[in-house]
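Practice problem: predict the structure.
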Amino acid sequence: RDVKDRVLELNKACLRLKSHLEAHPAVARVLHPESCPKFRALMRPGAGHGCLLSFELKEGLTKAKDFYDSLEVCKGPSLGTNFTLACPYVLLAHYNELKWAESCGVPTHLIRVSVGLEDSQLLWERFKYALEN
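Answer:
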């Protein structure tokens, strides 16, 4: 019944997390539909970018493992939950073709996040802790 309201909040929460990640010195890049001209061209008027983003850490796989293990959110691919989920998407989706994914510019240590409806500041504090430990 409240899907339109929830989707608007998820979009806002994802953009807030995106901004924090882009400003953090440990993050190499953030992938989000807001930065994709093709996505923007297909967007309906008044629509949002969704609640998914991916990011890569500057220190690669070792740092990504440490980050993932210390990140205090639920782990797994998104199936439409209201709470934040994180997963090592490339390892899950392309485990048998990691070299191919790398050749396409998609590193094995990419972290995918489906942002939920938690308090944005508390969520960022969890990410910041994991990034800095």
